[in-house]
Structure formats: structure tokens, C-alpha cells
Design goal:
The protein is of the alpha/beta class and 504 residues long. 34% of the residues lie in helices and 14% in strands. Strand 10 and strand 11 form a beta hairpin. The longest helix is centred in the middle third of the chain and has 30 residues.
């Protein structure tokens, strides 16, 4: 009797499960992870139509922004190529990952740091590189496809080379590191037939950071810069056209940003807004509602956690950045109110080195010069221009004079002085603001393990830099005596770097 009852219960249970299964809706097919293309443009600031600059047309980038998410306050971690890119690929600040200067000058990241292409490859992504990567050790970045031949200024050929990666990926999602070299100096009026209509020096305006400073030489350089921007814009058009033709456009996230600001005075190699604030656009038809924009502080360290979340990969807990996914369909209820950046080195081009750290809030910005009194590097063109007595007592000339012997701190009110020409540090009216920002900046440096908090480490770094520069001068002098040319890139920085390199 008990066995009959048990059998009855089993049958009843099976019938109930079958009935419930029949009533339950069919499970929806899992959405595949998006393809991801990280597009960087060398030395590219905010000179786009969608950011308010109409000097040259940028229709393809306009469309990218109009259909995606445009960040009005997008920042890189350092206004120098390799350090900036290292943050995109590791989610860490340069002083955390070790890439303090240019990779082709011998600087390199600490070995063994988890990186974006490596983690995505582990999740099943096919990974590829088009154009320069410009960080070391590059062999740790796990690229399946490594294009070494396509000229990055030939933007049509770049898109064609990228199509080969898409074909190789097959049904797998792909990650592509896509690096356009424009508008990097030296500037070209046209390259590979683009732009179709180059802008001339008579048609450009001087950057507002320079006030009344205006010379034919400066205008010529600015025109070349804008023609590079037109090539970048055309390149975005070619890239999107290829994705649409391959049926990959809808489920591909394009992250577009400059690796830092323009290669001009107060831009590249600085902690000023002109150097660290960049165009930052995310486009993904399947995942981002079009026409969105945000003024929240977005940083390049946010790229890695964003990509990992979309790929279903757990991000390392130590990452200082935050996923941008909450911005894709709205605004997060809480977000950072502060953004940080730094400058360590570019390459040992001249004697003297003045690393910087900076903090920016909605209104105020504080820059800490770690070696006050040591001149900051200024572009040769602006050095020549600003030495002319005709510019005496202009705000730009006065700023240039300050940079010949920088104070320890620079404080700027971005509401009244957006181009950071009037240093308020030491002004009693702003004492509380300066103290508060300095306290936050120091806390960030401690939290992220800034090696230059140790004055002995900073001194060793500077001393190694000076010895490298002296060696460079010696090699060039010997070459000159022989009537030969000694390219700078042949001098290896790595033996000197070992003297100060910190362990991760």
C-alpha cells in the first residue's frame, strides 16, 4: 500500500512539473556579448563639431555622437601617448602600471598586469591590433592578429585591414585596438588623397588658450592639425561602412577618444585641460540609446571595467575605474565628483624633469608640480614666439614666464578662467579651496600607491633621466664629429630605467 502511494506521488509530481513547464514561456536566447573596437586618435582634442568647434566638418564623428553617448567631460590619465594608452588597456593610472613615458624610449609597464585584450581573449574574444599600440611589454597583450604594415594615416587602408580581423574572428566576438595616428605632428595637408578639401592657414582661428598670440607660423601648424582631424573623421566613416557591410554594426561597441590633447603649448605633455580633456564617444546601436550625452567626469580608466562587464568578465577588484554601462540608458544615481590625472615623462628629450599630479572638480583644479622651480617643457614654436617682446604682459606670455620656474601648486577657477592662465595658489581668498583639493590629491596618491611620494624614488627617477639625457648628448656629439646622424630612438632607456623602476 505504501509503495502504491509513493508511486502515485511520483506520477503526480511529474505531471505537475510537466504542466508548469508547459505554462512557462520559452527562455529567451542569450544576447551575445558585443564586439568592441577601441578607437584612439593621436593628439586629438575637442576640435569637433559635436563639441562646438566648426572649423572643419566632422560629419562621421557627429553621427557617431548623435547615435551614441557623448561625454562632455572625458579625460585621459596622462597627456602623453604611451602612458595614456596604458591606462586604457590596464584600467590603471600610469604610476600604478609603470608606463611612465614613451614605450619606444624604453619605458614599460610592470610585467604580469592583467590587461583588457588578455582578459577578453580568455573570455572567447578574437583580439586584433591595427595601428600602433605603443605600450610595452606588448607580448603580454595577447593579440591574435597583429597588423604591422598598414600606415595609420591611410585611413581607408586601416578600415580594409580591420575587415581582415572581422573575417578571422568568424562567429566569435572580437576586440580591436584601432589606432589612427592623425592629428599627430608632423602635420600633412593631405595624405592618401584626404582630406578632399584641406583647410588653409587663413581659414583657421588661433586656439582660445593663446589669447591675442597670432603668427603665420602658428596658423600654419593649426591648419595642418585640423586637416589631420578631417582624416580621422573620414576614417570613422570607412570603419563604420565596413562594419555595416559585414553585418556587425548593430552589436559592435565603438569607444572613440583622443589619446590626449593637441600637440601644442598648454596641451600635450601638460596637466591643463587642453592636454587631458579629450573627445570621448561611445556608440553601440544594440545597447546605447542614441542622442545621449553626459557631463559627468569620465576617465580612460573606465574603459576596461566597461568592456569587461559587457563581455561577462569579472573585473579585478583593484581597478580604480568604474563601468560606464549605467550611462547607456540613463544616468547613475551616484558618480564621481572628481577626476585625477598626472604627468611623469614623455621621453628624456632635454635636461630637467618636473612630474605633476592634478585633481579637478566641477569648478576648481589643482596641479601639484613635484619639482617646483624646474622649467616645464614648452613647444619649440611657442618658445620662439613668446620670447618676442611684442607679447610682453599678455596673459599667455605671463603664463609662459611662470612655467620657466613653476610654483609647487597651481590653482585655477575654471568658471572664470577656463584656459588656466591665472594661478590662484597662495591667494588667501582661495586658501580653503586649495587646502581641500591638496588633501584629496594626497589621499588619491596614497590610495593608488604613487611611487613618487617617496622622495628618494623621485630623485632616483630624475637622476636616471639626467644620465640618459647626457648619454644621448654624448652619442649625438660623437656622431656629429664623424659626420653621421644619430637617431634618438637608437638610445636605449631601459638600463637607466632599472635604477628606479618600482615593483607592482
Amino acid at each position: 500500500m505504501k509503495m502504491k502511494r509513493f508511486g502515485f506521488l511520483v506520477v503526480a509530481l511529474l505531471l505537475a512539473v510537466a504542466s508548469a513547464s508547459a505554462m512557462r514561456p520559452e527562455p529567451r536566447e542569450k544576447t551575445p556579448p558585443p564586439n568592441i573596437i577601441l578607437v584612439t586618435a593621436d593628439d586629438m582634442g575637442l576640435q569637433l563639431n559635436s563639441y562646438g568647434d566648426d572649423t572643419v566638418p566632422t560629419p562621421h564623428l557627429n553621427r557617431l555622437a548623435a547615435e551614441g553617448l557623448q561625454c562632455g567631460n572625458g579625460y585621459v590619465t596622462q597627456a602623453s601617448c604611451s602612458p595614456s594608452r596604458s591606462s586604457m588597456l590596464t584600467g590603471l593610472y600610469p604610476h600604478e602600471n609603470g608606463q611612465l613615458g614613451l614605450s619606444h624610449r624604453g619605458y614599460a609597464m610592470h610585467q604580469g598586469i592583467p590587461n583588457l585584450p588578455g582578459l577578453l581573449k580568455g573570455a572567447g574574444y578574437y583580439t586584433g591590433k591595427i595601428g600602433k599600440v605603443h605600450v610595452d611589454p606588448i607580448e603580454e597583450l595577447s593579440f591574435d592578429f597583429y597588423d604591422k604594415t598598414t600606415v595609420p594615416r591611410n585611413v581607408k587602408a586601416m578600415a580594409e585591414a580591420t575587415e581582415e580581423i572581422v573575417r578571422e574572428a568568424g562567429d566569435r566576438p572580437f576586440f580591436i585596438n584601432y589606432s589612427l595616428i592623425d592629428p599627430h605632428h608632423p602635420f600633412f595637408e593631405r595624405f592618401a588623397g584626404l582630406p578632399e578639401t584641406p583647410i588653409q592657414s587663413s581659414e583657421v582661428s588661433i586656439f582660445p588658450e593663446y589669447g591675442e598670440i597670432d603668427t603665420p607660423e602658428l596658423r600654419e601648424e593649426i591648419a595642418g592639425y585640423y586637416n589631420g582631424i578631417q582624416r580621422v573623421d573620414a576614417g570613422i566613416g570607412f570603419l563604420r561602412e565596413m562594419l555595416e557591410r559585414r553585418g556587425k554594426a548593430e552589436n559592435t561597441l565603438i569607444v572613440f577618444l583622443g589619446d590626449h590633447g593637441p600637440p601644442f603649448y598648454l596641451g600635450k605633455l601638460s596637466c591643463y585641460e587642453f592636454g587631458i580633456k579629450v573627445p570621448f564617444i561611445l556608440h553601440w546601436p544594440d545597447g546605447i540609446e542614441g542622442g545621449r550625452d553626459t557631463d559627468a567626469f569620465i576617465s580612460a580608466i573606465d574603459i576596461m571595467p566597461t568592456a569587461l562587464e559587457l563581455a561577462g568578465v569579472s573585473a579585478p577588484e583593484y581597478l580604480p575605474g568604474v563601468s560606464l554601462v549605467p550611462f547607456f540608458r540613463g544616468e547613475p544615481t551616484e558618480w564621481r565628483q572628481t577626476v585625477f590625472a598626472e604627468f611623469n615623462s614623455h621621453g628624456p628629450f632635454e635636461p630637467g624633469l618636473n612630474p605633476q599630479r592634478c585633481i579637478r572638480k566641477s569648478r576648481y583644479k589643482l596641479i601639484h608640480n613635484l619639482r617646483p622651480g624646474v622649467p616645464k617643457r614648452v613647444t619649440a614654436l611657442m618658445d620662439d614666439i613668446l620670447q618676442d617682446p611684442k607679447w610682453a604682459n599678455t596673459p599667455t606670455r605671463l603664463k609662459w614666464e611662470m612655467l620657466q620656474s613653476p610654483p609647487e601648486f597651481e590653482l585655477y577657477d575654471l568658471a572664470s578662467d577656463p584656459h588656466e592662465l591665472r594661478n590662484l595658489s597662495g591667494n588667501s581668498e582661495y586658501a580653503e579651496v586649495e587646502k581641500s583639493l591638496a588633501t584629496e590629491l594626497l589621499a588619491w596618491r596614497r590610495e593608488t600607491g604613487d611611487p613618487f611620494l617617496d622622495r628618494e624614488v623621485l630623485a632616483a627617477y630624475v637622476e636616471a633621466h639626467e644620465r640618459f639625457f647626457a648619454e644621448r648628448e654624448r652619442i649625438e656629439r660623437v656622431a656629429a664629429e664623424k659626420g653621421e646622424k644619430a637617431p634618438f630612438a637608437r638610445i636605449d632607456w631601459s638600463p637607466f630605467q632599472q635604477d628606479w623602476q618600482m615593483k607592482p
